[in-house]
Amino acid sequence: MPLFNILATPLQNAEKILQKYLNGVKDSSSLAKQDSTEDSISLNRNPLRIMRFIQPTQDAQGQVHYPSAVATPLLKDSSIINSYLNIPVVRNQFPANLKFMWGKQEYDDNGKAYPYLELYAIKTVPGSDKAKLEGEVITDARQDYDPVTGGVVVEMSMNKHGADVWAKMTSDATVGNKHDPIAITLDEVVYSAPYVNGPITGGNSQITMGNRNTGQTVNEATDLANILKSGKLNAPARIVQEQVVGPTLGKAAVNGGALAFGISFLVIFTLMLVYYNTAGWVANIALILNLLFTIGILSAMHATLTAPGIAGLVLTIGMAVDTNVIIFERIKEELTRGKSYQLAVNDGYRRSLAPVLDAHVTTFLTAAILAYFGLGPVLGFATTQMLGISLSLFCGILVSRMVTDFYTNKNRHFQYFTGISKKVFQHANFKFIEYRKVTYCISVFVLVLGISAYFHGFQKGVEFSGGRSYIVKFNKPLNEQEVKDALNLQWGKYPEVKTYGSNQQFEITTDYLVNREGSAADSTVAGKMFVGLQKFLPPGTTAKEFTSTNKYIQQSKKVGASISDDLKAGAVKATIFALIAIFVYIFIRFRDWRYSLGTIIALLHDVLVVLAVFSFLPSVVPFPLEIDQHFIAAVLTVIGFSMNDTVIVFDRIREDSRTLRGKTKAEIINKAVNETLPRTIMTSLTVFLTILILFLVGGEVTKGFAFAMLIGVITGTYSSIFVAAPILIDMARKRPLGAADTSATPVIRKKPVPAK
Prior knowledge:
By secondary structure, this protein is an alpha+beta fold. Helix content is about 55%, strand content about 10%. The protein has helices at about 5-20, 30, 80-85, 90, 160-175, 215-230, 245-275, 280-300, 305-320, 320-335, 340-375, 375-410, 435-455, 460-465, 480-490, 520-535, 545-550, 560-590, 595-615, 630-660, 665-695, 705-730, and strands spanning about 55-60, 65, 100-105, 120-125, 140-145, 150-160, 185, 190, 205-210, 240-245, 465-475, 495-500, 505-510, 555-560.
């Protein structure tokens, strides 16, 4: 029986039920009840007429010909048709082994797209998601010409198994003088549905594209041949991640990032002047040049402006002045010791070079690893960060020194102290090492929290869980549970629903149809979401308005299940490689495994704190705390930043251990930590302020990233002082902290005279 005859009754029933459904009848018993009164059918009459069904034709001999497609709806109506066909009570009117699929977009001879799509009704294999014949049986396919008619054809050959199945399929398609079509699909899109002229044996087939030998026909034949051959590829091309951001949300994200950028620049600019007096102008000149160079290079690379990219620029503001902070604090130390300005500047730049290079190299390593394993927006963030770090070295060391030398050559000098900086952390003498047992207990508690976080679990973003995520905006306040309940009725499972900025906007994440790809699956998920949320939308809102405009769906994101596994594996590898790279670098620089071990323990401490916060606080804070690519970017950035502080402390410990002979390890470490305390606090403060501003005004897109960074900056500063340094005391107790400097004046420790 022709498929048109099979569809006739189901289509009539489906249209009647759909009409009632659109008129507000939701009860299943009322939908199934036959009602032929005029009042009941006066509204939304013939809702499926927009499908524009194709009628069969009859030739001169009276033979009826049925088209391969069943309808040719206008392209603009495809979304609403998807929503109609995905309504369960409508879908249930059709045979279980029937699936509607869209055809590919067709073009005329001039390359102009037709305003309609073909809709096919495909018979599927009962109980299976696969077709009777899959693409792996194709051994070759190519565009050719018919030697008799000269028309464009596609020659196709199959292996032995494919030839046997193909012979059976083509025989069934031509039983009883019929010539049924067989659809060729990829990602649930029908690329061709040729009629079968007769049984085909031997595995060699010819698909006629038409008798016209035009460029358009040849291109279509070539495309079809490529589609047929794509099934035998070991690694076909796939969209690993897709994200669509509406103009409203995109504009809000960019505006928020730009505002955070502007405020951060003004705050850091002012802080440099307030804390470092006229020397702050040197830091600000370096900062301005750093940003100009970064933006110029990104522009030359034709980089796309994204919210994570702007976040990278904001972070660059905080880190760009770190080089000058390290140098200025060292100059202030030399001045405090009574040196002249010229000598203090020379020694300050010279002795700051090693810690500056170490800090920037380790931070650059983590950014490079993030760039290698990251995708999409995270890759843009990493690229911006690497540029900022490289230019920070250039501007902070070379440009700053040039400006300083130019100024001092005029018998002038910059002032490095202000009334505030003279009073802060000057002559600090805190006994950090004496409290190490207390800090060890805190670290054990952090370790327990980190392990507990693993068992407690995390809220995974769509990148790591797989599925589809939507940000939907409503015209009235709602609560998360009623949105969950409404969508559970359509998707058969509860999605993750979180407020996104306000209780009128929600992020909805679902793994419904996570293993199915293609536009049909996307339309199915979106169509069912519309049906579930329809009662929360203004009356008269159509599926087309909901899915195809940015009025309601502000952003959509899709990640396949297998790709999410790849992203999770990449995130783990990135973190492990970052720790290994830092361990090796510190070992090479310090030639002492204790420095490497202390660094790694401090970094693990920082990571565990961030993990614990993201595990136990999602239900407490009013914004999403998800484990996604942005979170991994934050963790790796925290690792790099924490290394910055730790390396500065370690460099000073190594320097002091060479000159302070006769001092105990505790005295050397306490002195080193106290001496570097101003720069540790200032480098942390500049980054903390910029990230805090990003968190407050940068928008929802970067809020989770900024929050992770805020936690990381605080715990990174703590671990550099209270975790990394004390470990040098308790590891290899008899081993000195570094080689002694024989040129230094020895410090003679007098033994106390016992009381008589």
